[in-house]
Amino acid sequence: MAIPFNMNRMKDTELHYPQRFANMQQKDFGLIFWNEGNKASLESNHAVITDHIGIESSIRNIESFYKGKGINPCIYSSLKSGELEKVSEALTNHDFELELKSHEYFLHDHESSLKPAEDLVIRRIKKLDIDIMETIALEYGGDWTIKVVQRHLLHPSYHLLGGFHDMELASLASISVFAGYSRVSDVFTREKFRGKGYAGAMIHHLVNYHRGLSDNHLYLFSDHPETTRIFLKGGFSPLKQDFQTWVAIKHL
């Protein structure tokens, strides 16, 4: 590895990740992301408060910014220890609905025990065709997800991998390569293809694929026990976390 793993560097990569598919602006209070062409996407339209001094003023600025664009104001965790104690009261005072997340972060640090699936052909997807878009819209997230992926595909350092069974899309996974750190996301297996080992085959392929791209640290987060088990078998180990992930949203 070119550089030792640093948790703060990983957090910074995670916080800046949405700039690949949204506009980003640095503010006195932190970061703000927006995409007026994809207003339904929280990933594309949220703020991160990294400076908690003057929190009331920061929240008012965030509300004003998104209301001016006709977007529901949304704030994500800054992945800092003890953050909720500093912001929860102010968020409640401004009528934000707070939702705690169970995100666990993992780092790839040992060999995978997963195996390929002989009947799954995995290839990089550089452009979404009609069949793939329909599958994403119906089974993965909806139209807003398609818009995120389409904009993401404009970046050559975004690698979307599709697993195909008899030429039909069965599963997805992606890698975003940053400076020193690479992020795994979009891991998904269609319901009709579950239980066949395709998710494990995708993770196994993804890890080996990344070795050909970069010597970056490879990380991801999981909030589902089923996928967590696969990631552990794929060579990922849980990271010690001193923070709570959450999302706060105010509906206009």
Describe the 3D structure.
By secondary structure, this protein is α+β, with helices and mostly antiparallel strands. The protein folds into 2 domains: 7-102 and 242-249, no CATH class; 107-238, Aminopeptidase (3-Layer(aba) Sandwich). 31% of the residues lie in helices and 28% in strands. The chain has helices at 7-16, 55-68, 83-93, 130-140, 143-152, 198-211, 225-233; strands at residues 23-26, 30-34, 46-49, 74-76, 97-100, 104-108, 121-125, 158-165, 168-177, 181-189, 217-222, 236-238, 246-249. It has a 7-stranded mixed sheet, with helices on both faces. A 6-stranded mixed sheet has the order 1-2-3-4-13-5, covered by helices on one side. Helix 4 crosses helix 5 (143-152). The longest helix is centred in the first third of the chain and has 14 residues, at 55-68. It is globular and about 55 Å long. The chain starts with 6 loop residues before the first helix and ends with a strand.
Topology at a glance:
Elements: H1 7-16, E1 23-26, E2 30-34, E3 46-49, H2 55-68, E4 74-76, H3 83-93, E5 97-100, E6 104-108, E7 121-125, H4 130-140, H5 143-152, E8 158-165, E9 168-177, E10 181-189, H6 198-211, E11 217-222, H7 225-233, E12 236-238, E13 246-249
Parallel strand pairs: 3-4, 10-11
Antiparallel strand pairs: 1-2, 2-3, 4-13, 5-13, 6-11, 6-12, 7-8, 8-9, 9-10
Helix pairs in contact: 4-5
